[in-house]
Amino acid sequence: MALETYEAALDYLFAATDYEKMQRVRYNADTFSLDRMRRLLAAIGSPERRLRSVHVAGTKGKGSTAAVVHAMAVAAGLKAGLYTSPHLVDLRERIRVGRAEVPSEALRQLIAAARPEVDRMRQADDAPTFFEIFTALALRHFADAAVDLAVIEVGLGGRLDATNVLEPDVSVITALSMDHTLQLGATLAAIAGEKAGIIKPGVPVVSHLQPPEAMAVVERVAREAGAPLFVVSVGRGAPRLFGSNDDGISRGTPRPTRGDITYSWQPAEQGGRRGGRITVRTPNAAYEDLFLPLMGEHQASNAAGAIAAAELAGPLGPRLTPDLVREALAGVEWPGRMEYVPGRPAILLDGAHNRASMERLLEALARHFPGTRMVILFAAAADKDIDGMLDALAAGAIPAEIIFTRTATARAADPLDLQARFRARGREAEAAAPANIALRLARKLAGEEGLVVVCGSLYLVGEIK
Question: Checking DSSP bridges between strand 400-404 and strand 374-378, what pairing results, if any?
Fold first, then answer.
């Protein structure tokens, strides 16, 4: 099959997708390692060795954090790459240099150039996955563009993720919670171990303040790697040292050098955009009264971690000033994450897809839209923590009508099953499919002054967009 058109190249690339196989073996150490990824990269010129990078893992907020670091790098005049996943509408969204998505022709050429090695590996029964191939292409695109800094979001986990071939300037671990338990483990400690697998010897680590069992793992891995650890938490007065009795961190063992990053937040609007006004303090500087056009207090925590990471990134840190950070944050856009679309009714798009992220979404809705009539349009992949998300919705933190729908993916949960499980929790809901029909119903129920909230799946967000 010739790859003379962009469409033919995409067909070839998507032929590498084997979701069921990924579910079975992705994080089984006996059957999966980074060796295949390294062989693929070596065959296309080892682009990862030519990159300075910021590497971002976590359960929640890793995409937002990456986007904020990238915004600061662009504002600082650097040629900056950004690699994120999944995309919402177009695959090219995942790879950016500056604000530009990878051009279709450039992506076609990248796929065509990698094809001989991919074919050889397939013939040797060592076929790379879609994510491995696409990550390799992204790294090659950044190396060919001679970016000054690449901001790379982990796809899933960390230890065995295809992105973990990097030797970054700084590693970031955002908020951890239960998700992808089949691949990562059934406890927070196990999940933290996978995420902390991105920590490299001597490379600084910025971590959100995690639940105690997860924080203990991050601390241990950082200590064993000799990696300086910086921890982000909400401001509570003077910076704390290791072992203080109010931070929820494990006790009794020596720790690596640590600096604290603290933040404060309140909801705000500026120039017609909704978000928050934040202050961030790092061991090096104070960034006062910044407007961040991303809603929810959790985004303040993400921004604080991003600022700390930017300070530690060699090409970017020396260029940071409070004014530059203020300018960069005010211009941040991160579609599909509490993305507000004005209208009658207005629509809010959010990719919340586990219990913790659903709880944060509901908290943010209560803070930003008090008294607003709301209709929640929800779909989920069948392998996600559906019970956890339904528990959060059923708790009634905000008064809202619920409509269950489904996405066009084979993994989508049945909306009638979602409705039945919700009724078992004592709550009534509508069910409608496909998503465009469900959206029409949601608009009607919300009324012109209401708000339609689309959540539960980034695939649903993409379809609605």
Answer: parallel
Whether omega before 434 lies within 30 degrees of 0, making that bond cis, reads yes
Task: Give the model confidence (pLDDT) of 300-352 as tens digits.
Answer: 999 999 999 999 999 999 999 999 999 999 999 888 888 999 999 999 999 88
Domain ranges of the chain: 6-330, 339-464
Q: How far apart are CA 132 and CA 144, in angstroms?
A: 18
Type of residue numbered 384: K
| Count of beta carbons in the 10 Å neighbourhood of residue 423 | 12
* Separation of alpha carbons 45 and 191, rounded Å: 32
Q: What's the rounded Cα separation, in Å, for the pair 263 and 325?
A: 14
Q: What CATH class has 339-464? A: alpha beta
pTM greater than the 0.85 cutoff: yes
Tell me the pLDDT tens digit for each residue of 213-229: 999 999 999 999 999 99
Domain 6-330 has CATH 3.40.1190.10: yes
For residue 15, give both structure tokens: 């032929």
